[in-house]
User: Fold this.
Amino acid sequence: MPRYQRFLLLVLLLAAALAGCIAAGFRQRQRADAAWLAPRRTLVRDLMLTDFAIWTEARYTRHPSQADFFTPFQDAPGALEHFPSGSMLAPPVAMPQTRILVRQAER
Assistant:
């Protein structure tokens, strides 16, 4: 058997061993996730929970990633925050452009 064929055979065997190790790792991870998730699913079913809620006050503090930017100011735009949990949330990093610039067209 020539040397390059032995080399290719060795590479194929190592690739098959690596694929087997990765597949075994995925199976083990799935079993661990299932064991971790089962009691939590039972708790959610027994307590009839609907969604993850950080606080129970306003809808924009229940799940900050699902709230629009202007919801806290619908009651009064200049009002201070009246929910205690609103003071614990940091403002979003990237604010959208909220001004409309109107320019007169040049003639």
